[in-house]
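User: Can you predict the 3D structure for this chain?
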Amino acid sequence: MAEIDAFFKLMQDQGASDLHLIAGSQPILRIRGDMERVKYKEMDNDELKAMLYEITPPHKVKLFEETGDIDFAYEIPGLSRYRANFFNQKNGIGAVFRSIPSEIMTAEQLGLPAVVKRFAMLERGLILVTGPTGSGKSTTLAAMVDHANRNRKHHILTVEDPIEFVHKSIGCIVNHREVGTHTKSFAAALRGALREDPDIILVGEMRDLETIALAIEAATTGHLVFGTLHTASAAKTVDRIIDIFPADQQAQIRATLADALKAVVAQNLFKRIDVKGRCAALEVLVGTPAVANLIREGKAFQIPSAIQTGAKFGMQSLDIAIMNLLEKKWISPEEAYDKAIDKAKFVSFLKKPPDDFA
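Assistant: Here is the predicted structure, written as C-alpha cells:
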C-alpha cells in the first residue's frame, strides 16, 4: 500500500471529489464544491515529491521532469480510480486528484432527461457534452456510453487523456485508448480509429482544430461520436467550433457541422441543500432541421430561441432546468440566481435581491 493511499481513503470517507496536495501546504479536499483543509502537517517539496512519485509510472516521471505537467490515472482496486495532474508551482510540486467512481451511474440514477438516452442509440452524428471544469461532463458521457453498451451490439472505442470511467464489454465490445500510452495524440487516435471498425467513438476532449475536424469527419462518415468542450451553452459551443477554423474555411465547416451535429448537452453542477451531494442542470439542444439551418446560415445567436420552442423534441433551456431544481427545493435560490442566464426570472426567490434588481 502506497503512503498516499491513506488520503484516497479519506476522500472516500469524506465524500470528496478532489484531493489537492501542494508543497508548502496542508492537504485540501473539495467536498460538495467547497475546499476544506485536512488536519495534517504541511509537506515540503521533497517529501511530497517522494510520495507522489511512488505511484507514478516511470515514463510519466520522466515526462514531468522534462515538461512540468503530466496527467495519468491511478487505481486502487475496490476503492476507486483517480485522474491525476501534476504541476510545478512557486513552492515546488503540486498535484490534484479527481475521484472517478468504479461504478458507472446510469442515466436514470443521474436524473438525466429521457432524450439523452436516445442520443446513445443514434446510428451516426456528433454528440457534445459541454460545461465548465468539474461540471460532471465525464459522468454524463459515461452514462450515455453505458446505455449504448447495454442496449447495442457494436464496437465502442474511447480515446482519453487519461482513461477515466472503465466500461466492461456487455452488449458492445469496448476498447479504451489513452493518449501518451496507447497513442501519440487525440488526432492520431482518431485517424487510426477510422480503420478500426468502430461504431461509436468517444473523444475525451476536443482541444484543437485537427481533433475537432477529425471528430466531425468521423461523425459524417457513419460513426456516432461523443466529445466534450469547455463551453457554457449550446450556442457558444457552435460558435467555438466554427471560430477555431480559419476564416476561409468557416462557411464550409458550418455546412458540415449542420449535418453532423445531433445534440449538445450543456450542464452545470449545483450543491444540493436537501441532502448531501450535488446535482446537474442540463441545457439540451437537439439537431433538428431548423437548428441545422441556423448553424448553416451562421445564426447561432438564434439557438436559444430554438431551444425555447423545441420542447416537443426534448429540448430544454438551462434556466428551465435550474427552475425545476429550485422548485423541488434541491438547490438554493442564491446559487440558482448566480448560475442562471436570465437572472430576472429568479429574483423573486431571493431573500435579499441584489441592488440592480431592487
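The CA atoms of residues 141 and 356 lie 38 Å apart. Residues 137-151 form the longest helix (15 residues).
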